[in-house]
């Protein structure tokens, strides 16, 4: 029996989970600022599709850059979310990183604003999407697996 993927449900909120990491207070370059363990995916593999964040105080003089690690290794190139100089929002929607229950994600602050305007109170949201269930086609009647 052929297996058919019934399409991309990327925007289906019932299949998208959001996890959050924070760096509270004035920013400082450091590893493991916060961490979490992936849970609640019901035995499915999820995919990090988008990471975005908000800073309570904007960095000035240069960008604030954050890296996300999965089980101790970066999921990007060391610059997963960037808050540009003078901006309070950062976004990265060009990701496709597999995660399962039990994976640990951690937050590193790679660079900060200048000495007097470092930036502060950053919250990072990580959207994990579970692709739509595959469907087996038997005759004319699809059967969800």
Set down the secondary structure blueprint.
Layout: E1 3-4, E2 16-26, E3 30-37, E4 46-57, E5 64-70, E6 73-74, E7 81-83, E8 89-92, E9 97-99, E10 104-111, E11 120-129, E12 135-138, E13 141-144
Antiparallel strand pairs: 1-12, 2-11, 3-10, 4-8, 4-9, 4-11, 5-6, 5-7, 5-10, 12-13
Keywords:
145 residues, mainly beta, Jelly Rolls, five-stranded antiparallel beta sheet, 13 strands, disordered C terminus
**What's the N-to-C terminus distance?**
12 Å
What is the architecture at the second tier of CATH?
Sandwich
Structural class: mainly beta
Rounded mean pLDDT score? 84
* CATH fold-type name: Jelly Rolls
What is the alpha-carbon Rg in Å? 18 Å
Range of helix content:
under 10%
Q: In sequence order, what are the helices and strands, one letter per element?
A: EEEEEEEEEEEEE
Structurally, how many domains make up the residues? 1
CATH class: Mainly Beta
Q: What is the molecular shape?
A: elongated
- Stretches with pLDDT under 50, minimum 5 residues: 1-11, 134-138, 141-145
Tell me about the biggest sheet? 5 strands, antiparallel
Number of extended strands: 13
* CATH homologous superfamily title: Nucleoplasmin core domain
* Number of H- or I-type helical stretches: 0
Please report which band the strand proportion falls in: under 5%, 5-15%, 15-25%, 25-35%, 35-45% or over 45%: over 45%
Structure summarized in a few sentences:
This protein has strands at residues 3-4, 16-26, 30-37, 46-57, 64-70, 73-74, 81-83, 89-92, 97-99, 104-111, 120-129, 135-138, 141-144.
């Amino acid at each position: 029996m052929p297996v058919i993927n019934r399409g991309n449900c990327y925007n289906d909120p019932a299949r998208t989970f959001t996890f959050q990491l924070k760096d509270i207070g004035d920013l400082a370059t450091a590893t493991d600022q916060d961490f979490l363990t992936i849970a609640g995916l019901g035995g499915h593999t999820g995919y990090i599709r988008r990471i975005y964040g908000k800073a309570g105080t904007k960095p000035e003089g240069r960008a604030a850059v954050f890296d996300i690690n999965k089980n101790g290794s970066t999921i990007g190139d060391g610059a997963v979310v960037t808050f540009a100089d003078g901006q309070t929002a950062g976004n990265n929607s060009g990701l496709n990183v597999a995660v399962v229950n039990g994976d640990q994600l951690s937050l590193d602050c790679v660079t900060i604003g200048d000495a007097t305007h470092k930036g502060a109170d950053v919250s990072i949201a990580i959207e994990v999407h579970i692709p739509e269930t595959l469907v087996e086609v038997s005759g004319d009647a699809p059967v969800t697996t």
